[in-house]
Design brief:
The protein has helices at residues 24-28, 33-42, 59-77, 84-95, 98-110, 127-138, 152-165, 192-196, 201-210, 213-222; strands at 2-6, 13-17, 45-49, 52-56, 115-116, 121-122, 172-176, 225-229. By secondary structure, it is of the alpha+beta class.
Amino acid sequence: MSQQVTSDGPAPSLSLEFDDNQLLPTLYGDFDRHLARLEQTLGITIASRGNSVIIAGDADAVEIARITLQNLYNRLTEGLDVSVAEVDAAVRMARDAEQTARDGVEELASGNLVMRTPKRHISARSPGQQRYIRGLFDSELAFGLGPAGTGKTYLAVAMAVSMLTSGQVDRIVLSRPAVEAGERLGFLPGDMRDKIDPYLRPLYDALYDMMPPEQVDRRLETGEIEVAPLAFMRGRTL
């Protein structure tokens, strides 16, 4: 991918040229909706001509768009998909400090920060998630702190499934507290598993999102995957 910067006219512009034309329909999106998303989000204009795009607007916004498109193009060269959600995530990454954005592009291009599972390839969608995934890759023990919905459980399960299916580990144990979030649910019917499964639902949802259902069920039966409430882990040696 090559680029050329010009300062003629009322606003600076940047021309990007991509090497692989076959990736561009996915990069641009249906009816160029990904480019339109960037225009709307950053307040810039983007014109596509063959295998090149011309970005015009505020200098900072143009640079964010450049990093975003480079990041998305690198995703495609790594065999990953690009959707509107990935476009928004790439913009968030590019808006982080310039050095962090550069590091993110380089790491994604090398494939080091991509967790590959049977149904999907999962990568960071924010600088915080990127640091979290880096911690999971580099350390045997990682702590992730953050509000609900930031991907703590999902990314941890993704790392576990990726390591299991690639043969790095023989077995994974997924555990979380079986407690209410401030409500009183009362007594739940059924046996022990029926009572605790509602609290562990996020773990099952993540598993079924990353693996075919028959694989999940088979591995749960054989013990390759174990889902257990935290209270049951006391005294166990792993």
